[in-house]
Specification:
This protein is mostly helical. The protein has a single domain, classed as DNA polymerase, domain 1, CATH 1.10.150. It contains six helices and no strands. Helix 5 packs antiparallel against helix 6. The radius of gyration is 16 Å and the shape is globular. The two termini are about 30 Å apart.
């Protein structure tokens, strides 16, 4: 008798494939953090991303965005904030 192992669909395919299937970009995810009454580090980061016209707005690639932030982030904790938001992005956008 054969047994079928069940797993989540997202466990079976590469994350890059998932991103290419119509996920919104990191930019579109992160701007949902803008406009808080009491701004926190994530909303300030989102405001910076929104105002930066050179930010890679269509990208879903961690390395591309991370490299950009390492070079151009206006705050010293920009990379840490990005990593925290990227984990949330993966959680909400990766099925």
């Amino acid at each position: 008798m054969k047994y079928i192992t069940f797993c989540k669909f997202s466990d079976m395919i590469d994350k890059k494939v998932l991103r290419s299937l119509g996920m919104r970009s990191f930019y579109h995810f992160v701007i949902t953090f803008r406009g808080k009454v009491k701004p926190d580090s994530e909303s300030k980061f989102a405001d910076w991303v929104f105002k930066d016209h050179s930010f890679p707005r269509q990208s879903t690639d961690y390395h591309e965005i991370s490299s950009y932030i390492e070079l151009y982030s206006p705050s010293s904790d920009g990379v840490q904030i990005f990593d925290r938001l990227w984990r949330k992005y993966e959680e909400y956008e990766m099925i």
